[in-house]
Amino acid sequence: MDNIASAGSLEAANKKLVAEFMEVFSTGDVEAIMGYLAPTATWWVAGTIEGISGTKNKEEFRAMLSGLSTGTKTGAIRLTPLAWTAEGDRVAVETESYSEMRNGRVYNNLYHFVFEVRDGQIQSVKEYLDTEHTRAVFLG
Questions:
Q1: Number of neighbours of residue 12 by Cβ within 10 angstroms
Q2: Which of 120, 46, 125, 65 is nearest to 92 (CA)?
Q3: Is 34 exposed, middle or buried (0-12, 13-18, 19+ CB in 10 A)?
């Protein structure tokens, strides 16, 4: 029973960390966002979108995020969690994004993120999204 209770508290703490991360992500403060990621963290994005898809280390993710945010009117992409699942070190969250872009388009995507959290830091992220919407808004 103690293992189940401690697992539940670990999962609650991991969900809380990811929720805080999404709130900070929504501000566009790149340095604050990076503070949630472990030094060896990786971020993987589905698809074949040049400059966006594939696996990035922390510094590559910082550069990508900085570039993406300059295309938005507010400097941020708002993330709204819709549904959560947490088990052990993994937190999965269905999420909706919203941002008005400088190019006149609206970025409003749906995601499934899988976060791996250890020692109070995000170790890895897998980002599944509508790649055609992303391509049309950012590169179209």
A1: 11
A2: 125
A3: middle
Residue 62 identity: R
Q: Cα–Cα distance between 33 and 21 in angstroms, integer? A: 7
Domains (range + CATH), the chain:
2-138 (3.10.450.50)
- Is the pTM value of this prediction over 0.90? yes
Tens digits of residue pLDDT in 87-127: 999 999 999 999 999 999 999 999 999 999 999 999 999 99
Could you report the average pLDDT of every consecutive run of 10 residues in the chain (140 residues)?
60 97 97 97 96 96 90 95 97 98 96 97 98 92
Cross-strand bridge partners of residue 8: none
**24 phi, psi to nearest 5 deg:** -70, -40
| Count of Cβ atoms closer than 10 Å to residue 44 Cβ | 15
- Are β-strands 106-107 and 110-118 bridged in parallel, bridged antiparallel, or unpaired? unpaired
